[in-house]
Amino acid sequence: MDNNKKINKNLYKRLLKYAMKYIWHFALAVLIILIIVAIELYQPVLLGDAVDKFLSHYNQSREVSAIVMQSDINGVIKIAFIYLLTVIVIFFLNYAQALILAGAGQKIIYNIRLEVFSHLNKLSLNFFTDNPIGRLVTRVTNDTEALNEMYTSVIVNILKSFFVLIGIVATMITYNLKLSLLTFVVIPFITLFTFVFKHVSMKIHREIRSKISALNAFISEHVSGMKIVQILAVENEIFDNFKNENEKLKKEHIKQLFTFAIYNPTNFLMNITATSILLWFGGKMVIEGTITIGTIVIFQRYISKFFEPIQELAEQLNIIQSAAAASERIFGLLDEEPEIKDGDNAIEMKRFKGSIEFKIVWFSYKKDEWILKDVSFIVNPGESVAFVGATGAGKTTIQNLICRYYDIQRGEILIDGINIRDIKVSDLRKNIGQMLQDVFLFSGDIKSNIRLQNENITDEEIVESSKYVNADSFISKLDDKYDEHVIENGAAFSAGQRQLISFARTLAFKPDILILDEATANIDTETEALIQDALKKIMKGRTTLIVAHRLSTIQNSDKIIVMHKGEIREEGTHQELLTKKGIYYKLYQLQYEH
Fold it and tell me: What one-character-per-residue DSSP string does 498-566 give?
């Protein structure tokens, strides 16, 4: 329990830090609320004065002169006018306060959302492997939005509720201590109910946020994999799984509704009980002449107002619990440390000459499950080096390590004689163009997919790069050419067209080192000819690392490295390796047999 309190305290401290930048907005809102509270506390006094000064004596069996009656009517009209004026003033003050808080709240949420997304961009690939995309989307969207209402209404309104409660208690005691103490009998009970409600509500909110996150992850995963679902005709089974996840979320929401269904009537019951006590004991005091009817009116209004902030506090607690549950997840994400980050003395390298060296490199994704064992090789500037071997031999891992998506456990990786750990990560990756088998295109247009937010790349450079890699041959035939709309992941284009766009993208960024990972796999013969021609062009004068299963595509490489179970078994040119009649020779024979 103490640990939970400590966690909550830290959460609220961190949430308040975001609000401190807009402290004057909140200070102004609090000042407005103090004025509103003062006016609201004055309203019952107006009603009480109207009853005592102008209305109560009309119950007595005596005649009242016309002059007195007119004076009383004028008095009532005056108080009614003042009361109406207080209502109008409160209306405009509430509007001003809401406007101030909404502006500050939106700015805070905007900043938090930026921070979360920026932090996501810095996290390592391992993190995205271990966390479903739908869950991360929930952090950036739903969870940040859950904080919005807390900043726009809860923080200041909790203060308002507190001020109202203190003000009502103080005013009631001032009017009549005995009657106040009698009506305050219900306070311990409502306090106990509120404490229990808060405890139960917090647990339910955590579960709701967790279930929403799980449901979003399920939807994201299965919508992305819808083609496989339909190929295997397992729609019904997937629907049943979704139904189960949805049912879990529904049950938590029902628990939440049930909790409120108990708390709200309990709060109303306490209100009625306090009013009954007032009428019972207050009525006797009026008859005894110790208090006036106006005092009863004032107390009745204060009792009603007393339970309003308690009801609001319960609703605000609901928002706070939701915000706390969401912030736990947001801060959990922000507390994730990137595995790959710049060292304290990381150097800038705007361009590479292109030499690459692996020195006794050992690497594993999981502890002691070595993917690479004692790997050493040198690639000279401008050389093309191909990596071949069975699936799982470590070919793609080598490429990922050069781009420093993961850090090695032993050994060194050098570019231009400098350990890649000592190079700024952004500079390292900007100078390495990596082309994968599965090309990802973003929604937008072709130009934006080649430029990828780099405004330094001009439209002319985009067209020039596309022509150079033969992508212009199909882009120029499209209705909108380079402004052609691209749907998510470029589903409207063929695999070959997507690959040509990725080549244009890579060339536009002018990398010094190229990495090709099965870039010509699953491409039709006609498009492959265009791609092979494009590859020759963009490889010219650049250090190039190639992973390919089809040995015919790498025969002209300057060097071929044969990998087997994480180790380098053979190294040489195509002809040299065939002469050795080792692993490469067997792979070559196997492919030609097929």
Answer: HHHHHHHHHHHT--SEEEEESTTTT--HHHHHHHHHHHHHHHTTSEEEEE-S-GGGSTT-SEEEEEETT
Q: Does residue 504 contact residue 450 with C-beta atoms inside 8 Å?
A: yes
Amino acid at 210: S
Considering 80-94, 215-229, 485-499, 547-561, the range whose residues carry the highest mean pLDDT is 80-94
Angle 367-371-377 (CA atoms, 0-180°, nearest 5)? 130
How would DSSP label each residue in 564-580? ETTEEEEEE-HHHHHHH
CA–CA dist 256, 318 (Å, integer): 10
CA-based radius of gyration for the chain: 36
Q: What is the DSSP letter of 337?
A: P
Q: Locate 314 and state its tokens.
A: 């319960």
DSSP state letter for 281: I
Q: What pLDDT does 3 receive?
A: 45
CA distance 152 to 26: 10
Contacts of 321 (CB under 8 A, 6+ apart): 198, 201, 202, 204, 205
- DSSP structure string for 159-209: HHHHHHHHHHHHHHHHH-HHHHHHHGGGHHHHHHHHHHHHHHHHHHHHHHH
d(CA 590, CA 550): 11
**Residues in a beta bridge with 561:** 387, 571
CA–CA separation, 418 vs 431, rounded Å? 14
pLDDT at 364 over 50: yes
**How much is the pLDDT for 2?**
46
Cα distances (angstroms) measured from residue 423 to each of 376, 429, 460: 20, 10, 31
- Burial track 127-154 (b if 16+ CB lie within 10 A, e otherwise): beeebbebbbbbbbeebbebbbbbbbbb
Q: What is the structure's pLDDT at 92?
A: 92
